[in-house]
Design goal:
Helices cover about 75% and strands about 0% of the residues. The protein is built from 19 helices and no strands. α5 packs across α15 and α13 runs antiparallel to α14. By secondary structure, it is mainly alpha-helical. The termini are far apart. The chain has one domain: Orthogonal Bundle (Hydantoin permease). The chain binds tryptophan. The site of tryptophan has 16 residues, from α1, α2, α10 and α14.
């Protein structure tokens, strides 16, 4: 075992770190706006089904692989199949996906840090909605500023990961996660006192079938469930590899999935009532948290205090997720290349920092932004810039395919005895074993393939 491998200090520490990975921009920034775009209630139901039937069994599978092999994805798949097995492609996909996802994730995290600053200095006070909207547009288009925040966020992420599992990732998860839950609670209590609460609640849980599109909304729900639960690219294989061999993974997975889903729903329950109270439209895409919410806060009593709290929440959530993405790439070099943790973190973190620069520039007019957009309009349905393209491919395609691969690997390739024993280690829920295997073997592959085939238009060929 490489000297620089670590181990979690306690089960609680692990749960906080895994929940920290799962709870991120995906829950607080992305889930509410995707739910808004896809019409609320119906989308939420489809999303919950994706979490329970696809996400949860895959989370158990990822943690099982990591804990069994005590290695990050490439080595883990090798040690559980054969040297040079084609399944190792799954491991490589993880490392590539970690680089790609963190490169654009960090840019959005940078926006939230910028907004912590803006709201602390009271930049939204006495501004019209148009002026607040213009502030986001200005940030989005300002490549230099985006690059600066991206670098700062990556430096923070690197600083935590370089300190190792227990003294870096676990320690910071123990500090940031309770803070995150506290902030969430304060904001929720506030949202519940607003006039728009019933309307917001009704929007999230009511049926608005008109905005729900079977093809694209289902793909969005599936992609979102993978992204939100940190699945499909070995992040939880890696985190699982720092668990003791006798630690159970079944109830841990149930806890992490439940917390992640709860935070997503609570974030929506915070945002929508506040927006409705201010008379704003919920269908606001990317700008929901960065435009509509500041507008709402600028008009509400207490908004000057709540706005910085919200963006701090977003920043903390982003940071505990980013460290898990960086850890996947770092652990590969520690395990497979025998690099020291310091070298592995600095090289991968530095690489991601550079790779993220095009995403930071994507809101501007250059070749990664508008130029790319117009050039490829026909391919990326409506013109996506560099950032959009990376986000679309990684979330909607790489993660589901990675998750599909993991489900097939565990249910078809890993031997029955090892799998059964592994599932039943350290848990009282061993009776769920049969159901878990059926989900991995049939429900996950068929479900994921149907959604993906549908998305490339296989079922609408005759239209
Ligand atoms: N789950 C995080 C979020 O919701 C993002 C994230 C962290 C992630 N690690 C991941 C996504 C691994 C996919 C894979 O914001």
């Amino acid at each position: 075992m490489a000297a620089d491998r670590g181990q979690w200090g306690s089960r609680l520490g692990f749960i906080l770190a895994a929940t920290g990975s799962a709870v991120g921009l995906g829950n607080i920034w992305r889930f509410p706006y995707i739910t808004g775009e896809n019409g609320g209630g119906v989308f939420v139901v489809v999303y919950l089904a994706c979490v329970a039937l696809v996400g949860l069994p895959i989370m158990m599978a990822e943690l099982f692989i990591g804990r069994t092999a005590q290695l990050s994805p490439v080595g883990a798949v090798r040690s559980m199949s054969a040297p040079r097995s084609p399944w190792m492609g799954l491991g490589w996909l993880s490392v590539v996906a970690a680089f790609i996802i963190l490169s654009f994730y960090s840019v959005v995290a940078g926006w939230s840090m910028h907004y912590v600053g803006l709201s602390i200095v009271g930049a939204f006070k006495d501004k019209t909605p148009d002026e607040i909207g213009a502030m986001f547009d200005a940030l989005y288009a300002n490549g230099g500023l985006n690059v600066l925040w991206h670098i700062l966020f990556m430096v923070l992420t690197i600083a935590i990961v370089v300190s190792g599992i227990r003294k870096g990732i676990e320690l910071w998860s123990r500090i940031l996660m309770p803070a995150l839950f506290g902030l969430l609670l304060v904001l929720l209590i506030y949202a519940m006192t607003t006039d728009g609460f019933t309307k917001g609640f009704e929007y999230i849980f009511g049926f608005h079938a008109d905005k729900f599109d079977l093809t694209s909304s289902t793909l969005d729900a599936l992609g979102q469930s993978f992204f939100s639960l940190s699945l499909g690219m070995g992040a939880l294989v890696t985190y699982g590899s720092y668990l003791r061999r006798d630690e159970g993974v079944v109830s841990i997975s149930i806890i992490v999935c439940s917390l992640d889903t709860a935070v997503a729903l609570l974030a929506a329950l915070i945002l929508f009532p506040i927006l409705f109270t201010a008379g704003l439209d919920p269908d606001q895409s990317v700008g929901l948290a960065f435009i509509s919410l500041p507008i709402a806060f600028s008009q509400m009593p207490g908004g000057a205090v709540l706005a910085p709290l919200f963006f701090l929440l977003l920043t903390f959530a982003a940071l505990t997720s980013a460290i898990s993405l960086l850890e996947v790439a770092t652990a590969y070099f520690i395990d497979e290349r025998r690099w020291s943790r310091a070298k592995a973190t600095l090289v991968t973190g530095g690489g991601i920092l550079i790779l993220g620069i095009p995403s930071a520039l994507a809101g501007g007019p250059g070749i990664f932004g508008d130029k790319l957009k117009t050039g490829t309009e026909s391919i990326w349905d409506g013109g996506k810039n560099w950032f959009d393209v990376l986000e679309y491919f990684s979330n909607n395609w790489m993660l589901p395919l990675g998750g599909l691969g993991i489900a097939m690997f565990v249910s078809w390739r890993v031997g029955n005895a090892a799998r059964e024993q592994g599932f039943k280690t350290g848990t009282k829920l061993g009776a769920m074993y049969w159901g878990w295997v059926q989900l991995l073997r049939y429900v996950v592959p068929i479900g994921v393939l149907l959604v993906l085939l549908n998305a490339i238009g296989v079922f609408s060929a005759g239209e």
